[in-house]
Amino acid sequence: MARSLGVYAVEGDEREARRRKLEALRESGVNPYPNDFRPTDTTGDVVARFGSSDADELAQLDGEVCLGGRIVSRRDFGKASFLHLQDRRGRLQAYVKRNVVGDEAFALFKQMDLGDFIGVVGKPFRTRTGELTVEVHQLRLLGKSLRPLPEKWHGLTDVEARYRQRYLDTTTNEQVRETFHKRARIIQRLRQFFVDREFFEAETPMMQSVAGGAAARPFVTHHNALDMQLYLRIAPELYLKRLLVGGFDRVFELSRVFRNEGVSTRHNPEFTLLEFYQAYATYRDLMDLTETLFVELADDIAGSRQLSWGEHQLDLSPPWRRVSIPDYVADELDLSLDAVRDLDLPTLRGAADGVGGLLNQDYGKKYGDAAAGYLLMDLFETIAEPELIQPTFVEEYPVAVSPLARRSETAPKFVDRFELFIAGREMANAFSELNDPVDQRQRLETQLEHRAAGDDEAHAMDEDFVRALEHGMPPAAGEGIGVDRLVMMLTDATSIRDVILFPHMRPEKEVPPEA
RNA sequence: GAGCCGUUAGCUCAGCUGGUUAGAGCAUCUGCCUUUUAAGCAGAGGGUCCCGCGUUCGAUCCGCGGACGGCUCACCA
């Protein structure tokens, strides 16, 4: 305790001053935290109504406006003061004069600080400099703030503080608020897009006894009453397909999944995934749908199909480029297309030598075509991904890396699948769904072999899922879209933490205690 | 998980080759100020220089270890 007094003496200084004001208010009978004030307007309403009125027009008004918000700046004079009030719609200047509000209210106002929530009633006018301002007739303290706001000019720029104390970031930085408003609108547009097309919105289990549907490590938890291990889902896929079996032939889910993996500018352990499944469609149909969706979003959110994302200038105008993996690899590395399509391991190994530094890392864990499939993917990613800047559908994936996708009828070692790349990032993953239960069981058993051989990201077996397929699933195509990355693209964010309100952080070593 | 960089007042930042008492602006406190908007003027207070160990007569500064963060890479969406 004595120690913390020393450590936090400085901040305590300002907080001490605010506490004293708080006590003084209470002693004079003022409740510093009332909840009986009802604003009838917002700053946005006032600007919309009076933003184009000149000083004379405003002078002839006889109505009042009533606002609630936080004091985010103030400029004091002896017997008057200007302040800016910020609410959900923006900020507006207010002018407090002692001879208007009265001595008592003005004395109270003098005790108010930056960061306090207040309610004001007053009349709009224009200042000498022409700024729309509310002349305050009455004011109330609605919520006392005991800690200082970040510096007014630079705002809060310390990245760590911005993420850990997002409330300060959003209070201070208008752009950040805008980004999250855009995110909310994107979520709504996504939902509406699928509802409009008669997709059923599903809510499937977040806690699963088998974490299926993707290749990723799950978070593990425990259910006490049932004394059983549960996993946070890594994907909703297997449940959404059960719904295809169950008669919902168009379904989607838009919510959180959890993957126990690294944190980076592109990864957060929990992230938002949109998955949708459409019966009687193929992955090719979903290409068209995806183009339509992205273009609608770009038009609405960014106002253009020409986007700037970090260092890249993007053009989302359809149709987008399509690239076949075996074609591309054979062409770029001057290999026999037949050998590549046949997943000929010696051919691919030889090519890997040429690419350099990419040989047999842990392909020993996999067998036969699987090893060749993984190798082909590594080859492709190494040589092609850096140039997948403009929207590109990459297609023809090896069966081994796609255990839930439908086998191609023309190239049986490949599946009917695409991934969408933009700015080198994977934005979507889609395929014609495997609805052959015999093939599905076999594929998952192969995954189990990989798992037994040490690949802890191999897919798990889900017996009930296979049983569901045995009851019959309509032919369908499904897709997953990484919503956070989509938001990043549409808001020109380079870190996923800039589009997630409360990104994952290590715990602080100590939160400063009460002084 | 690896590499590089960073951490100084509540906030934004200076701080020379290791040398007396670590500075500025904003914020806070006191006084003045009724059209300001990074308001102004005068004054005051506020620091475990991220933590620990070491080197040194002496460390915010150099070395080692650690914590947290950023970027890049790896895994992935």
Write the layout of secondary structure elements.
Blueprint: H1 2-7, H2 9-27, H3 43-50, H4 55-59, E1 65-76, E2 80-87, E3 90-97, H5 98-101, H6 103-110, E4 117-126, E5 132-143, H7 159-164, H8 166-172, H9 174-196, E6 200-201, E7 207-208, E8 220-223, E9 228-232, H10 237-245, E10 250-258, E11 270-279, H11 283-302, E12 306-309, E13 312-315, E14 321-324, H12 325-333, H13 337-341, H14 345-355, H15 368-384, E15 392-398, E16 414-422, E17 425-432, H16 437-452, H17 463-471, E18 476-482, H18 483-491
Parallel strand pairs: 3-5, 6-10, 14-15
Antiparallel strand pairs: 1-2, 1-4, 2-3, 4-5, 7-9, 8-9, 10-11, 11-18, 12-13, 15-16, 16-17, 17-18
Helix pairs in contact: 8-9, 9-18, 10-17, 12-15, 14-15, 16-17
The structure holds one RNA strand of 77 nucleotides.
| Helix percentage | 25-40%
How does the helix and strand content classify structurally? alpha+beta
Largest sheet: 8 strands, mixed
The residue-averaged pLDDT reads 90
- The gross shape turns out to be elongated
Low-confidence stretches: 1-11
The tally of helices reads 18
Termini gap = 9 Å
Query: What is the number of strand segments?
Result: 18
Beta-strand percentage? 15-25%
> For the CA atoms, what is the radius of gyration?
30 Å
> In order across it, which strands form the biggest sheet?
6-10-11-18-17-16-15-14
